[in-house]
Amino acid sequence: MTGAFQKAFDLLFSGDAQLWNIVSVTMRMTLTSSIAALLLGAPLGVLYAATRFPGRKILIVINRTLMGLPPVVCGLLCYMLFSGVGPLRELKLLFTVTGMIIAQVILITPIAAGSMETYLSAIVGEIRESARGLRLSGGKTLLLMLNESKYALVSTYLFGFARAMAEVGAVSMVGGAIAYKTNVMTTAIMMYTNRGDFTLGLALGLLLLLISLIVNVFAHLLQRRRA
Amino acid sequence: MIELSGIKKRYGTRLALDVPELLFLPGERYALIGPNGSGKTTLLRILAGTLKPDEGNVRLSGLERGEIGYMPQKPYAFDLSVVKNVMLSLGGGEDARKAALAALERVGLIQLAKARGSRLSGGETQRMALARLIAKSHKALLLDEPTASADIYASDMAEQALLEYAAETGCTLIFSSHAPSQALRLGTQAVALEGGQICEHGAVQDVLKNPKSECTKFFLSHWKL
Fold this sequence. Notes:
Number of strands of chain B: 9
Number of domains of chain B: 1
Strand order of the largest sheet of chain B: 5-6-7-3-8-9
Strand content of chain B: 25-35%
Radius of gyration of chain A: 20 Å
Mean pLDDT of chain B: 93
Number of helices of chain B: 8
Oligomer: heterodimer
Shape of chain A: globular
Shape of chain B: globular
Helix content of chain B: 25-40%
Mean pLDDT of chain A: 91
Distance between the termini of chain A: 42 Å
Largest interface: A-B, 17 and 22 residues
CATH topology of chain B: Rossmann fold
Structural class of chain A: mainly alpha
Order of helices and strands of chain B: EEEHEEHHHEHEHEEHH
CATH superfamily of chain B: P-loop containing nucleotide triphosphate hydrolases
Number of helices of chain A: 10
Distance between the termini of chain B: 31 Å
Largest sheet of chain B: 6 strands, mixed
Helix content of chain A: over 70%
């Protein structure tokens, strides 16, 4: 066990091409999908929390259901959409990083929307009441709401980023874990473990943990600033 | 002048407010008194236009909705500096900043002008919210328990600022309070409420020192004036 850890550390600092390709694909996929999910989900969250329209409550319930969407189910749906017999086969997205990104966006967008909706719902009533009392315009009130949710926005992004990075079910089904193409850290850990190559798996696991630690330290510092 | 007629507001099946007729005259200072759940906040929110009544209407004459300032029971302190919080309804520029600082001076918060609004205590937030209103000219101010979270010193400063503002602008003050002593200090008129209905209204001295209705007597029996 100790030997495996030693080898994993050595591998991390050896500049192994395969390992750093996996890390590079992972970062590209994670950064793109988490930013896209935030750009789609955050406005939806603001819409759910700050406005009233017919069907809003139904949409919130649907969103909360999708927050718990199992990644393998998302992967299966995307697989069916992108496969040779699926309606989106012409786009040739199966076993591509773009396809993996789309699957992750589907998974994370409801989480970003739900997180923003939960945060804003708690303060929107007081903000609106105070803003109306001061006779502020709707546009100015919306800007103030966005200003109030800036820390929540960053926390939501970091949470989405961590979720995207740690996700394995959807990306393995849509991406296929093809070496030097769609293999990401989580799928690679599974693959190397199945092959009995614990060293590379452990090195990737350590990297994942390190990135998760950095993300959580950021989230913690933000929460402290908000308190 | 603000005139209410046939106002009814229900929360579910509970009738929270039932005011057949009520008149607020310009330049007067009205204290809304009554126990929790008597309808003070509902009445103020309907007057402010942040809550729609189920029935009846509010008629404004001699003033427009935009000339009425309203401070809710839990005013929100935005994550801006205190002085920028006060400037929100004033716009930008040096004049707005000066007006905001003068209002903060009046409520005794000038030393916190650069602090974050979100870091203020409950009492400080209420005084900041008061400064947001008195920094600008209004024809009527609606205040929901404006000093509920403030200590005696802060409450005194806020009351003094309100009285000065009312004297300078001639605006109508309508405020709710649980404290009859505050109603006497700030108000010229009193409206006593219970169960969403008006028990009695009239000159503050009459209503508080010689109450006629049983509900006002009962409410005041718990206070030593």
